[in-house]
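User: I'm preparing a small set of examples for a lab meeting where we compare how different chains pack in three dimensions. I only have the primary sequence for this one, and I'd like the structure in token form so I can line it up with the others. Please keep the answer compact; I'll paste it straight into my notes.
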Amino acid sequence: MIELDKVERWERYDAWQHTASISSLIANICRDPKERKEPFTLADFNPIKIPGQPIKQQKPKQTWQDQKRIVEIFNAAYGGTDRRKG
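Assistant: Understood. Below is the structure token output for the 86-residue chain.
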């Protein structure tokens, strides 16, 4: 059963490579080298991960400092007051 899953992923990955190739070509033609120094790759446009790698990628954990900063930004954007600063 696991082998069948790998074969399916390879087939989907291979099918997307054609679309990813055309997409990356167009994106690199239209790319502003001042804004984005590195060229686009096939991996940027292929939603199927390379077989053998986990499908889900771990997101970096959000620290309490990150959450605090987000709350401060929303508070300022919506006209709230910061009562901590007196």
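A couple of notes for your slides: The helical segments are 2-30, 64-77. The longest helix spans residues 2-30.

User: Perfect, thanks.
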